[in-house]
Known about the structure:
Strand content: under 5%
CATH topology: Rossmann fold
Distance between the termini: 35 Å
Number of strands: 2
Helix content: 40-55%
Order of helices and strands: HHEHHEHH
Number of helices: 6
CATH architecture: 3-Layer(aba) Sandwich
CATH class: Alpha Beta
Shape: globular
Structural class: mainly alpha
Amino acid sequence: NPHLMDELVTAVGVEVVQWAFKTECCGASLTLTRSDLIVERVHLILTDARDAGADIVCVACPLCHVNLDLYQPDADARFQIKHNMPILYFTQLIGLAIGISPTELGLNKHRINPMPLLREKGVVA
């Protein structure tokens, strides 16, 4: 049960939910050769996160970020569901907590726009 990431984001005010796919691989090594499997993995991971009560998925792995953010619309189309789950690096959450602007953190470059949820939660104005 890895816990360091949980402790890190909790320290900056994030409420962590426990979910079964917390350490599940997104299938990163298959990104270029089996995007169909990536889309399935994305759907499974995001569905599990949402079912556990998550609003955002926080990651440390660049390939997890790419797959969960970039392939999310493909998963939505294939499984006929709208996940609308922002994916953030843990460093972006820390940056927000210490006052770095969303633009400086690259949040405007995400495929799934995190800004509406961050505004709703009072994280940004």
